């Protein structure tokens, strides 16, 4: 039994050895390598030369693809099938064509390979040779009798494919072999159209010489010239035109080569089409002209050439749209400018009921809007939905376009507005921040201090001093609805952060402390909305930083603390706002900030409890360069001469409207820092400089009297030649700031200087009496 098992095992080993020696894959490998001795050995051992692997590849295919001609011959001699196909339908001849093995191809052909068999994509060996750009294989296959007209499954013949590849050698060989230059693919594209689509100029010349039809069209009606527009090089179109191509041929959409060139951004081709007689007014099936196409892609140069060549700038398409309307829709400001200058109708209404400016407003194209406004476009005409241009821009968030259009509306209304109508116009323009029109209204005589009719909600809620829980729960908002009236244009501008408008109003006499019916000043509104830039601007023009409203006794600092507007807090404190001043409910700004957890605001107020002058004086990096005696300036904190001099120049230029950024007046807290502003306003000399043009006087209404051991207060009435009197308080934190005489007596001259400083007054010819009484 054990001996029988051993014999069976030996038999199995012998059989497996024999199977290994006859493995077909070994013959495949040897064929690809051209290992003739191994091929001979394997054939002698009985391996069949035509055995295929699981993908249908045979040793003949391997040898053909690798160009192993001698190995190929051994296999053919051994009886291998030269026409066997693999999984992709490819024969050995096709594989040799794809790998540029001309000798292998000839060997196969001599052995009876069928030259016109097709693979699974309906490609013959000739087609594959053309596709892979192997001219030598093309010649070999043609010599072997290949049919030059057999097309692939897309209907492309070898000649069409050769022309698209740009190979003049293959094109010449195929034409010589009788390939038709009139052949068309499945899309009815001719050989010439195929060559034009790829810019194969030299092939086009050969095809033209072979009498190819230069005006033949594909199934979209496109000619070779139409497709040539997609090539940046003009030479393709030049050869076709010279051969008689029609520059005005239209495709099935009615588009000419000129329109196609413009759409493709091929300006040079468009220019040359015009030079060669293209119709500049020929529209497509939708009525779109070349000029409209230029407007859509913002091709300014081509638009100008079209206009110079007689293009109709007011032609309309089937949708009632003009070239200008299309340019406005596309945000093509350059083309719009050229069209406007050429006389395009800026108020043309499209079939959809839209004017160019409405289209530009929806697109948010401020540049085109400006051009249309300059040309007198009607900004009042609404679209079919009743929406005006400015409303469309506002709705879509296009602030620039909105402001430009709205400004024009106000300027238009200004022409007929007088008296109260003019004042109302100013109020609404201020509310919307229309700086340019505001200036024009003021110049016409609008009253910058005339209250508007609109009412604004009062949102500050002064809780009882012990109601911290309610404070936090209610968010410090008034549960009872209160509306405040009598807001001035300045208040309207400030609460909307229209600071450019506010500056224009202030420079033209707007009173910075004029309150509404709730006692809210513009500064309070700036504080409530977090408008730090506006707050600084108001302080520059003398706004009182510590005024209380008449509803809750809240100051600007209360509102800044409530909203945690730290930059506003920083602006108010150096200007005299007090963090310990309680509202009617007993809450001081500092306590309010602490209760709400607004630590930044609370910290600022805590650090400034000693007073504005002391806080500014503690800024060692800024004020380290004091005078030798270290004495403070009269009426204010110590001053760093160089820093204040620069600040003064900047603030003065802002006040006089000389400081310009772009085309707008701007006040920048980064350039006029709060500490500069506070100290500059506290210094009587510089304060007088700010108000030099205003001319004003004062009279004492209360004091001076001692307030405490370290200072005094006095209330004076400041009046100016611009109308409106304002009551202000003089506060000195340290003895000697305003006087030096023993016992607290106040020399009249020193008091006079302090009052002049607070009121921003300058000496006049009439003068102001030393005792502080107003000169009659």
Q: What's this entry about, in short?
A:
The chain is mainly alpha-helical. It contains 42 helices and seven strands.
List the helices and strands and how they pair.
Layout: H1 2-21, H2 24-33, H3 36-44, H4 59-66, H5 69-77, H6 92-98, H7 102-110, H8 125-131, H9 135-143, H10 158-165, H11 168-176, H12 191-197, H13 201-209, H14 224-228, H15 235-242, H16 257-263, H17 267-275, H18 290-297, H19 300-308, H20 323-330, H21 333-341, H22 356-363, H23 366-374, H24 389-395, H25 399-414, H26 419-432, H27 435-444, E1 456-460, H28 468-474, E2 477-484, H29 489-495, H30 499-507, H31 522-529, H32 532-540, H33 556-562, H34 566-572, H35 589-596, H36 599-607, H37 612-617, H38 620-623, H39 641-655, E3 660-661, E4 664-665, H40 674-682, H41 684-690, E5 696-708, E6 711-720, E7 725-731, H42 748-759
Antiparallel strand pairs: 1-2, 3-4, 5-6, 6-7
Helix pairs in contact: 2-3, 2-4, 4-5, 4-6, 6-7, 6-8, 8-9, 8-10, 9-11, 10-11, 10-12, 12-13, 13-15, 16-17, 16-18, 17-19, 18-19, 18-20, 19-21, 20-21, 20-22, 21-23, 22-23, 22-24, 23-25, 24-25, 25-26, 25-27, 26-27, 26-29, 27-30, 29-30, 29-31, 30-32, 31-32, 31-33, 32-34, 33-34, 33-35, 35-36, ...
Question: What features would you describe in this structure?
Answer:
It is a single chain. The model is unreliable at 1-21, 462-479, 610-648, 654-751 and 761-776 (pLDDT under 50). The strands form 3 sheets. The chain has a 3-stranded antiparallel β-sheet, with helices on one face. It has 42 helices and 7 strands. Among the domains are: 24-147, Serine Threonine Protein Phosphatase 5, Tetratricopeptide repeat, CATH 1.25.40; 456-609, Ankyrin repeat-containing domain (Serine Threonine Protein Phosphatase 5, Tetratricopeptide repeat, Alpha Horseshoe), CATH 1.25.40; 691-776, no CATH class. It starts with a helix and ends in a 17-residue tail after the last helix. Helix content is 48%, strand content 6%.
């Amino acid at each position: 039994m054990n001996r029988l098992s051993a014999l069976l095992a030996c038999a199995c080993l012998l059989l497996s050895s024999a199977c290994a020696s006859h493995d077909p894959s070994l013959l495949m490998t040897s064929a690809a390598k051209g290992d003739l001795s191994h091929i001979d050995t394997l054939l002698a051992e009985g391996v069949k030369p035509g055995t295929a692997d699981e993908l249908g590849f045979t040793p003949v295919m391997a040898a053909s693809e690798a160009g192993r001609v001698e190995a190929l011959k051994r296999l053919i001699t051994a009886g291998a099938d030269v026409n066997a196909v693999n999984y992709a339908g490819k024969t050995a001849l096709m594989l040799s064509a794809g790998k540029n093995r001309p000798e292998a191809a000839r060997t196969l052909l001599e052995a009876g390979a069928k030259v016109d068999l097709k693979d699974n994509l309906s490609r013959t060996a000739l087609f594959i040779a053309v596709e892979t750009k192997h001219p030598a294989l093309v010649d070999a296959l043609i010599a072997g009798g290949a049919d030059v007209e057999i097309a692939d499954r897309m209907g492309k013949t070898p000649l069409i494919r050769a022309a698209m590849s740009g190979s003049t050698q293959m094109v010449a060989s195929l034409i010589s072999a009788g390939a038709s230059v009139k052949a068309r693919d499945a899309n009815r594209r001719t050989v010439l159209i195929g060559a034009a689509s790829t810019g194969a100029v030299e092939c086009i010349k050969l095809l033209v010489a072979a009498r190819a039809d230069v005006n033949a069209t594909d199934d979209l009606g496109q000619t070779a010239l139409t497709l040539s527009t997609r090539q940046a090089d003009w030479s393709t179109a030049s050869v076709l035109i010279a051969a008689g191509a029609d520059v005005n041929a239209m495709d099935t959409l009615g588009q000419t080569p000129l329109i196609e060139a413009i759409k493709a951004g091929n300006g040079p081709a468009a220019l040359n089409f015009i030079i060669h007689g293209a119709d500049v007014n020929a529209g497509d099936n939708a009525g779109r002209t070349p000029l409209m196409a230029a407007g859509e892609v913002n091709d300014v140069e081509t638009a100008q050439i079209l206009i110079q060549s007689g293009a109709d700038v007011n032609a309309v398409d089937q949708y009632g749209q003009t070239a200008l309307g299309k340019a406005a829709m596309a945000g093509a400001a350059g083309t719009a400018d050229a069209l406007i200058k050429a006389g395009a109708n800026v108020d043309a209404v499209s079939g959809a009921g839209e004017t160019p400016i409405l289209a530009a407003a929806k697109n948010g194209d401020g540049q085109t809007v400006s051009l249309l406004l300059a040309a007198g476009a009607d900004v009042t005409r609404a679209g079919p939905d009743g929406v005006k241009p400015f409303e469309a821009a506002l709705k879509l968030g296009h602030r620039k376009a909105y402001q430009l259009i709205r400004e024009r509306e106000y300027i238009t209304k200004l022409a007929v507005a007088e008296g109260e109508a003019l004042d109302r116009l100013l109020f609404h323009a201020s509310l919307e921040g229309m700086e340019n029109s505001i200036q024009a209204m003021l110049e016409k005589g609008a009253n910058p201090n005339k209250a508007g009719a609109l009412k604004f909600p009062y949102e500050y809620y002064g809780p009882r001093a012990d109601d911290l829980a309610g404070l936090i729960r209610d968010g410090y908002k008034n549960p009872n609805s209160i509306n405040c009236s009598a807001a001035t244009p300045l208040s309207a501008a400030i609460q909307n952060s229209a600071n450019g408008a506010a500056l224009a109003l202030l420079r033209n006499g707007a009173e910075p402390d004029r309150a509404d019916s709730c006692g809210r000043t513009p500064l309070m509104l700036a504080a409530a909305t977090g408008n730090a830039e506006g707050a600084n601007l108001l302080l520059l023009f003398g706004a009182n930083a510590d005024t209380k409203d008449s509803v809750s006794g809240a100051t600007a600092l209360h509102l800044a603390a409530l909203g945690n507007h730290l930059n506003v807090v920083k602006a108010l404190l150096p200007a005299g706002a007090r963090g310990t001043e309680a509202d009617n409910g007993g809450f001081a700004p500092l306590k309010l900030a602490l209760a709400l957890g607004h630590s930044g605001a609370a910290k600022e107020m805590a650090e400034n409890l000693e007073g504005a002058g002391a806080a500014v004086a503690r800024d060692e990096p800024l004020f380290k360069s004091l005078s030798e005696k270290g004495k403070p300036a009269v009426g204010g904190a110590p001053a760093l001469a160089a820093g204040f001099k620069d600040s003064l120049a900047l603030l003065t230029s802002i006040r006089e409207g000389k400081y310009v950024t772009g085309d707008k007046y701007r006040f920048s807290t980064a350039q006029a820092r709060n500490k500069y502003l506070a100290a500059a306003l506290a210094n009587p000399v510089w304060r007088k400089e700010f108000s030099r043009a205003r001319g004003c006087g004062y009279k004492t209404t209360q004091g001076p009297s001692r307030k405490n051991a370290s200072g005094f207060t006095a209330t004076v009435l400041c009046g100016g030649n611009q109308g409106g009197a304002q009551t202000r308080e003089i506060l000195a934190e340290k003895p000697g700031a305003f006087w030096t005489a023993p016992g607290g007596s106040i020399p009249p001259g020193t008091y006079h200087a302090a009052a002049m400083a607070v009121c921003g007054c300058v000496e006049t010819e009439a003068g102001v009496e030393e005792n502080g009484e107003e000169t009659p």
